[in-house]
Each structure stands twice: as C-alpha cells, then as structure tokens.
Amino acid sequence: HNSPHRRNIPPHLSAENSDKEVKMSFNEFYSDDDCEFRNLKFIDIAAKEYDPVESVVSGRVDVVSTLADQTSVNALKDAPVQYFINNCDSYVSAFFNSRTLDLESRKALMGLCNPTETVDKLIGSYYSRIVSPINIRFAEYPSKVTDPYYSEQTYSIYTQFSEAPVKNVTAYYCGKEDDIEHSILVDYKELLSKKGVILDIVIASEEELRNAISSGKADMWIETVSDGITIDKYDYYNGIGSMNKTGLNDPEINDLTSSIRSAVGFNNKSLMISNLMKLVMQQAVEWPLYQRQEIVIYNIETISPDSFVQTNESDGFTYFISKLKPND
Questions:
Q1: What percent of the chain has pLDDT over 70?
Q2: Which residues does 236 contact at the CB level (< 8 Å), separation at least 6?
Q3: Which of 44, 89, 177, 194 has the most C-beta neighbours closer than 10 Å?
Q4: Please, is 101 exposed, middle or buried when counting C-beta atoms within 10 Å of its C-beta (0-12, 13-18, 19+)?
Q5: Are 176 and 203 in contact (CB under 8 A)?
Q6: Confidence of residue 259 (pLDDT cuts 50, 70, 90)
Q7: Which residues pair with 91 in a beta bridge?
C-alpha cells in the first residue's frame, strides 16, 4: 500500500560507518519496487585524497559529484561515463564595508573588479558570470540584466570628481593562496596599482575576518554566498539581517526584504526581487563575481544509460539514486 506516509520512507538506511566510508542497505519498509541497487557505499574521496574524476573513470566509484573545470571534462573524453553539468547552489561575491568606504568609492572599486579573465584562466568556461547578487538557479533571478552595474568608466568619473579618491584598500579572504578567490584578489591588486591604489591582501580565519570588519580594518572581503531555500535576501540586506556584515541599513531595502517574505505570486515576487537587486547595487555593498558549476559523473559500465531521462531538476541526478538501474 503506497500511502503518502510510506512513500516518504527512505530507500536505504545506514548500516555501517567506518574509515571515511558509509555503507547503506536497502530499507525493507520502502514501498516502491523500482529501487534496483540494494546496497550502497559512500566514500569520502576528499578525506582519502582520491581524485574524483579518476575515481569514477577507473571504477573505484560509480557516481561522483565535483566542481567542473576544463581539466575534469577533458579527462572524461572517451571514458565509459555519462555526466551532467549544473550550476552550484552557491556563488562568490566581493563585499565592501560601508563603514570604511563611502558610496562613490565603493562604486568605483567595483568598476575595476572584473574577474572574468582570472576565472577563465583557472577553470575554463564552467561557471556563470552573474551580475545580480542572487543565485542564478532561482527562477526569479533577473536574467534580463546582463551587463555589470559598474565598469572602468565608473572609476574614471570617480577620479575626476572626487576630492579625495581612495588610495589604500585592505581586502580579507578566508582560504588558501591557490584558491580562485585569492587569484582574483592578486590580479585586482595589480590592476589597482596601475591606478595608484594600494591593495593589501590579508588571508585570515573567519574569526579574524569578523573582527576586522567590525573594527574597520577590512575594507572588502570575498566570500561564498549560500542562498539556501529562500530568495528574499533578508539576512544579507536588511539592517538587522544575521548575515549583514557590510553595515547596509537602507529603509527602502529594509521594507522590501520584509515584504518579499510574504509576497504571493511568481510574477509579483520576481518584480520585487528585480527592484531589490537594483537598490542593493545602487548601495554598492556586494559585487557578485561568479557562480561555479558542478559535474555529476556516472560510470555507465555499472549504471545503465537508460536510467537517465529528461528532467527539469536543477541538481541533475544527484538525488535520484533510487531510480538508477544496473547495466546488466
């Protein structure tokens, strides 16, 4: 009997957890009969220091999800695999501290921050260059806006009319020197130096970043933004938002972020999101840089290609293990 309650029962249950591996067995109470892989084993390949692409190509694992780049895709050529590429559920932005930088300085600095060349060099074309500070996976993303809000011309105008243009900027980043984000800052530093602006880059812990923001030591920082399941951006842009680190406190934005939470109707909510994005960009506190793509790879020597049907799911087949069929 496939009642709604029984259909919410997971197809597999954890049976054993050891040595960076989780073994799962079929749940006898699972009501659907189309789950053909009865036993699963999940391996933390990062902890074991396995290369994710090599792991699935060699047959060590049958399914793997990893960040997409040109090297990974090239390695799959002629391999017995099928793969799907989708946007990740987070994006990367540069944030500017409204407590230490005035509005026109923030706009000017954004105008010089173009990460495209850096990101292309490191991962190829496997990312989206977003220009609005919201996850591109949301249907409400303002797709008609394709040009960045600020450009090098913004900076040129700023230097002509500003009585005291900014000359020193401190940027913080929580990560490693070989990360894409750090490379973006290094290239940005070189460009700013040609304009007579000194950019100091500080690699810090999350606690050090929080202290630097509140104390005024950090003028800007780069972070990954995980939007979660909501699109109102209340936490980031409302004056009392829990993730609002930039000091933004604009009455119009406060009202709009509150209103979006209770908005009804897709078209109405999309219009409100579009208006919110314009207001946020006018305040110049977040400069979206890029949104990476992930690749989900399946070994079709083990998994039948017939498992894969057309779907509108943005996550590809990551969560459809119960639908996969053996390649007998």
A1: 89
A2: 133, 225, 243, 244, 286
A3: 89
A4: buried
A5: yes
A6: very high
A7: 225
Which residue shows structure tokens 């960009």?
Answer: 281
Section 266-291 average pLDDT: 96
Gap between the Cα atoms of 62 and 19, Å rounded: 19
Lowest mean pLDDT among 123-127, 140-144, 172-176, 312-316: 312-316
Full DSSP string of 74-95: HHTTTSSEEEEEEE-SEEEEEE
Q: Are the CB atoms for 290 and 128 separated by under 8 Å?
A: yes
The C-alpha atoms of residue 283 and residue 221 are separated, in whole angstroms, by 16
Q: Tokens at residue 16, please?
A: 């054993």
Bridge partners, residue 87, by sequence: 293
Rounded Cα distance, 319 and 326, in Å: 16
Which residue from 272, 228, 285, 241 is spatially nearest to 140, judged by alpha carbons? 272
Q: How far, in Å, CA of 211 to CA of 115, rounded?
A: 27
Q: Has residue 149 got a pLDDT over 50?
A: yes
Helices 180-194/116-123 angle, 10° precision: 140
CB 246 within 8 A of CB 95: yes
| Residue pair 20/44 in contact by the 8 Å Cβ criterion | yes
- The answer to whether the pTM exceeds 0.90 is no
- Cα(16)–Cα(177) distance, rounded to whole angstroms? 37
